[in-house]
Write a structure and sequence with these properties.
Strand content: 5-15%
Strand order of the largest sheet: 1-2-3-4
Oligomer: single chain
Number of strands: 4
């Protein structure tokens, strides 16, 4: 669960780097991204497709929305056999706060 959260955050941060590779030599991005060391946080939720924010001092992360079950596959749906690929019981209904320095997690 903790590794999925970290992987998701790193993936979101890495997307602009992939875009930068496609820019011509005359164009540059107005920012840089540096990735730190991986951390394990017990109790961190396993979220997919969430929104995140970081406090101005960097000591707290806020995670909202997303799915609680991590990654998923889509089942084929037909009029005769409808499938709910996003069942309500898998939706995150909480706001999560994580203090990466202390490892505290609450919602």
């Amino acid at each position: 669960m903790k590794r999925i959260l970290l992987l998701a955050l790193l993936t979101l941060l890495a997307l602009p780097l992939a875009a930068q590779e496609s820019l011509t030599a005359s164009k540059t991005l107005p920012f840089t991204i540096e990735l730190g060391d991986a951390i394990n946080i017990d109790g961190a939720p396993s979220l997919q497709s969430f929104a995140a924010a970081v406090s101005s001092d960097g000591n707290k992360w806020l995670l909202i929305s997303g799915r609680l079950t991590g990654l998923h596959t889509f089942n084929t749906t037909t009029p005769e056999k409808p499938v709910n690929n996003f069942p309500p019981y898998q939706l995150n209904d909480r706001a999560w706060v994580i203090e990466p320095g202390s490892g505290r997690v609450w919602s």
